[in-house]
């Protein structure tokens, strides 16, 4: 039996959090650079919003999007 520590599995990506102050992303944070980055409203740090999975989507897409 573990303690009552909450373990929430958000999968690989998980909720976006500020790596500096560990604050969760919220509407008060300011998104910059085409929403690929955000400025934490809690500590003012600039964080990358893109994760590893989001990189290279264009190159990895196969053709055949049209289903005719
Ligand atoms: Zn922060």
Structure description:
This protein is mainly beta and 68 residues long. It has a domain at 15-50: Roll (SH3 type barrels). Helices cover 6% and strands 13% of the residues. The protein contains one helix and three strands. It has one helix at residues 57-60; strands at residues 30-32, 37-39, 46-48. It has a three-stranded antiparallel sheet, with no helix packed on it. A hairpin with a 6-residue loop joins β2 (37-39) and β3. The longest helix has 4 residues, at 57-60. The N and C termini lie far apart (54 Å). Zinc ion binds at residues 18, 20-21, 23, 40, 42-43, 45.
How are the SSEs placed, and which strands pair?
Blueprint: E1 30-32, E2 37-39, E3 46-48, H1 57-60
Antiparallel strand pairs: 1-2, 2-3
The structure holds zinc ion.
In short:
With 68 residues, this protein is mostly beta strands. It has one helix and three strands; from the N terminus they run βββα.
Per the CATH scheme, the topology name of one domain is SH3 type barrels
Helix count, DSSP H or I runs of 4 or more residues:
1
Give the helix proportion (percent range).
under 10%
Please, what is the CATH homologous superfamily of one domain? Answer: Zn-finger domain of Sec23/24
Strand order of the largest sheet: 1-2-3
| CATH architectural name of one domain | Roll
By helix and strand content, what is the structural category? mainly beta
Biggest sheet architecture: 3 strands, antiparallel
Distinct ligand kinds: zinc ion
- In N-to-C order, the SSE pattern is EEEH
Distance between the termini: 54 Å
Our Rg estimate from Cα atoms comes to: 17 Å
């Amino acid at each position: 039996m573990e303690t009552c520590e909450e373990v929430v599995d958000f999968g690989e990506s998980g909720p976006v959090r500020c790596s500096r102050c560990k604050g969760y992303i919220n509407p008060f944070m300011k998104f910059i650079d085409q929403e690929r980055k955000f400025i934490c409203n809690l500590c003012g740090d600039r964080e990358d919003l893109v994760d590893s999975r989001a990189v290279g989507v264009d190159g990895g897409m196969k053709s055949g999007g049209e289903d005719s």
